[in-house]
What does this fold into?
Amino acid sequence: MLAGLEWGEPVGRPVVFLHGFLDHAGAWSRVVEGLSGWRVAYDHRGHGRSAHQSASDDDAFLTYHFAEYLADLDGLLAQLGPAVLVGHSMGGTIATMYAGVRPDRVLGVISVDGLGLADGADGAVTRMEEFLDGVARLPVNKRFASVDDAAARLRRTHPALDQAWSNELAARCLREVDGGYTWSWDARHRLRGPVPYRHDHHARFLRRIRCPVLSVHPEHSPFRDQDVAALEAEIAMVQIVVIANSGHMVHIDAPMRLTECIASFLQSV
It folds into this structure.
């Protein structure tokens, strides 16, 4: 079961927001409030308030496969109809891959620092070793005494957050446990994935995209310029915009400027 948020009347063209790894739908709140129309954001499986994948017994473990994120989006758009996709980081990768495999369901894509992950082919053996080590000792999420403590942790990580906004974000990504709270996202996400990300694999999807794409670059991205440029070169209709004084979490560092970029793009598709 997926949880989500919705703004505006459910008519016309939906704009679907896809959050990044270990984030949640509520992270888009400051961006969508400056937009009009039908806007939808949801928590990816095992994130936010969406259900975790369940193991059949106490000794079993399950990992999250990237293709399942695309399957969830596919099920949603089967109900909503063709949409514009806005994805941050992992959400941008989901959006661009989905646009390549289901071009008739995507009217436009905005990828917010979602292109440029380093190619992992050379590290395939190391990744598998790290995965096996992780399975042998499954990760556990940190605990907090209160929502305020978790919000303070978010502010240390993201200085652009004020107290009210950090409390809002923390409240959506916590669950109550004995003695306090813990992150609601499934700790198994912290297992090192056994399958490395490949540029040549992603590029096959990018070449099939038929809609306009806006690639949003933060001024201070963790991705290498050459990796970003190589992937953008595979997209037929791509625009590029740079948001100054922003890091990877653009929707937190510069939500108003990101809203302006999205609004301008939406007028053209």
About this structure: Residues 69 and 75 are 10 Å apart (CA to CA). The two ends are 31 Å apart (CA to CA).
